[in-house]
Prior knowledge:
The model has no long low-confidence stretch (mean pLDDT about 95). Helix 2 runs antiparallel to helix 3 and helix 3 packs antiparallel against helix 4 (about 55-80). About 90% of the residues lie in helices and about 0% in strands. It has one domain: 23S rRNA-intervening sequence (de novo design (two linked rop proteins), Up-down Bundle). With about 110 residues, it is an all-alpha fold. The relative contact order is 0.19. The chain has five helices and no strands.
Amino acid sequence: xxxxxxxxxxxxxxxxxxxxxxxxxxxxxxxxxxxxxxxxxxxxxxxxxxxxxxxxxxxxxxxxxxxxxxxxxxxxxxxxxxxxxxxxxxxxxxxxxxxxxxxxxxx
Length: 107
């Protein structure tokens, strides 16, 4: 059975290919942090799905924190001029969608 939040998180990860390519050349450390945060969203969503009770909620809250870190990393990259807003708009929109789904899952 598909898990919509997980599927959207994978779309978010896929949308990061272009911004990550630009970041790899300009700020490899920020690119690595962005990559880890994005992976954390999907991995914690998936792990939480198989847990129960407070474990589940905790993992989904961690996923939400990581999704917010993805958004913050993209905004920092924009502020430094490493990427343009047009190159991050889809990723940021998908981050917002994942965060909304996670809010519903945790509240």
